[in-house]
Amino acid sequence: MRPAGAETTAPDGTRTSPDRGREPEGRLRGLTVPMVLGPTAVGKSRVAVEIARALNGEIVVCDSRQVYRGLEVLSNQPGPEERRQVRHHLVGVVDPRRAFNVFQFVELARAAMAAIAARGRVPVIEGGTLLWADALARGFSLGDVPPRPERRAELERLSVAELAELARRLDPDLDIDLRNPARLVRAIEILEVAGPPLSRLRRRCPPPWTPIRIGLVTDLATLDRRIEERARRQLERGLIEEVAAALAAGVPPDAPALTGIGAAEARAHLEGRRSREQVAQAIVRADRRYARRQLRWLRKDPEVNWFDATADPLPGILEFLRERIR
Question: N vs C: which end of the chain shows fewer Cβ within 10 Å?
Answer without folding.
Answer: C
